[in-house]
Design a protein that fits this description.
alpha/beta; 467 residues; 9-stranded mixed beta sheet; 21% strand
């Protein structure tokens, strides 16, 4: 797969999963590779690359003399000293996804890329898309922000890539042109990284660049606007939770209906979509639209949705006891995701809080006040939640937990259990990031599940379900 990178001096910024994959791919095509990271431990984990010729250098703040290209990990901000110095020196900076695209184009037999971005629902939609395409017999793999680096998917030679793209990854991608793409939704998130909602939306819009089919969510104003502005030359398709018009996929008579790639074609029953909830129906419609754009037949859509297994920490029922359900939606790391989680249940004891990253929660609290039986607040920004609750839900009991880590979660679940009554759902949907208390959202979700089991350990009526 040698091509444009052979003989180039490339600096890989970041020694995480995507950095390792980028370095390995570049070495394989004949580039001279240097990897830098602020963490000596992360660099030490890449010692095997040294045997392949890579140089490992801790803490670079400017590219080495003679560098032709910098490949950055997605979490590095544009104002990071190393990246800013590279730009000032005229050295191109790209991300691992852009590197994967260029390597794929150089291969002579590139894969078809189907791309998904949005504030929420990306992983679920990409995973549904992968399941649908596999049901159709397609050689496909879900990759990108879902976990598998896109570089690795390209090097494995899969024919179709279901690519989940974060705003960070899109910021560092300039020539990626997926065959079909969708922006699921846009809401306040990562404003500390991008600087504004407009800049965040502009990064999301890059997913439509060069696409042949642009799928928009007709029920989301940002998605509709971005598709109209960024995909002028693409075929326009949209999805809606209402009955579809021409050019749309939607819901009618308890079915997912396609009026974009066929004349009123029934794709699946509403009951085929799981977990239930309007947000997951919207995700299923987006996945179906991308699959239909690729040419998948209706039967595979239904089969793929039925076979789909949701990821961990996304509306997972952890346990039921004495008429109370305990649901882990730790993946609800921003207000938009938490809103979808809350709307799925009529009577909620809500465990919320963490790092808001600049997001506002007034609208979230106001919209869901009527369904809240009680709220237990955790994490650094719990005061902002408390203020919004006092304003919009003054009669709802609120308890704050100051402790951190797993002990704090155990205390939160104990408090939530005191408020719960038969018919209640104790819902972990924090509306915030987790790194103030936990390693990541998965750690937070595991802590919740462990706490639930500990609290219910002596309850003979408890019936636990995976988690």
């Amino acid at each position: 797969m040698a091509g444009r990178f052979e003989g180039l001096n490339v600096l890989v910024a970041g020694a995480g999963v995507s950095g390792r994959s980028a370095a390995e791919a570049l070495l394989a095509v004949g580039a001279a590779v240097t990897v830098t990271d602020a963490s000596a431990d992360r660099l030490a984990a890449l010692a095997s690359l040294q045997a392949q010729g890579a140089a490992l250098v801790e803490g670079l703040t400017e590219p080495p003399t003679g560098a032709d290209l910098v490949v950055t990990s997605p979490g590095w901000r544009p104002d990071a000293p190393l990246l800013a110095a590279a730009v000032a020196a005229g050295v191109e900076v790209i991300g691992e996804v852009e590197l994967a695209w260029r390597l794929d184009q150089d291969s002579g037999d590139p894969a078809t890329w189907l791309a998904v971005t949005g504030t929420n629902g990306k992983t679920t939609t990409v995973s549904m898309l992968e399941s649908i395409l596999r049901a159709a017999g397609v050689d496909v793999v879900a990759c990108g922000n879902v976990g598998l680096p896109v570089v690795d998917a390209v090097r494995a030679g899969h024919r179709v890539l279901a690519v989940e793209l974060s705003s960070f990854q899109l910021h560092w991608s300039d020539s990626v042109a997926a065959f079909a793409a969708v922006v699921l939704n846009v809401a306040d998130d990562h404003l500390d990284w991008h600087g504004s909602l407009a800049a965040y939306g502009a990064a999301k819009a890059k997913v439509y660049s060069g696409s042949s089919v642009a799928v928009a969510n007709a029920d989301d104003a940002w998605s509709t606007r971005l598709a109209a502005a960024a995909a002028a030359d693409a075929r326009r398709v949209s999805v809606t939770l209402d009955a579809p018009r021409d050019g749309q996929l939607g819901v009618e008579d308890a079915s997912l209906l396609d009026r974009a790639f066929g004349d009123r074609v029934v794709l699946a029953a509403l009951a085929d979509v799981h977990p239930a909830g309007p947000h997951n129906v919207a995700n299923a419609l987006a996945a179906a639209a991308l699959a239909r754009a690729y040419g998948v037949q209706p039967g595979a859509v239904a089969e793929g949705l039925r076979a789909f297994q949701p990821g961990a920490h996304r509306s997972v029922l952890v346990a039921e006891a004495a008429g109370v359900s305990y649901v882990d939606d730790s993946k609800a790391t921003n207000p938009h995701a938490a809103d979808a989680a809350l709307r799925a249940h009529p009577r909620v004891v809500w465990i919320a809080g963490g790092l808001l990253k600049g997001a506002e929660i007034e609208e979230l609290v106001a919209a869901n006040a009527a369904r809240l039986q009680a709220v237990v607040l955790i994490g650094r920004d719990r005061d902002q939640f408390a203020t919004a609750l006092a304003r919009h839900a003054p009669d709802v009991p609120v308890r704050e937990v100051a402790a951190g880590d797993d002990a704090g979660m155990l205390q939160a679940v104990r408090s939530a259990n005191e408020f719960a009554r038969p018919g209640s759902v104790v819902l972990l949907a924090p509306a915030a990031a987790s790194m103030d208390m936990f390693t990541d959202y998965a750690h937070r979700g595991r802590a919740f599940a462990d706490a639930v089991r500990a609290v219910l350990a002596d309850a003979p009526a408890a019936s636990t379900h995976g988690g």
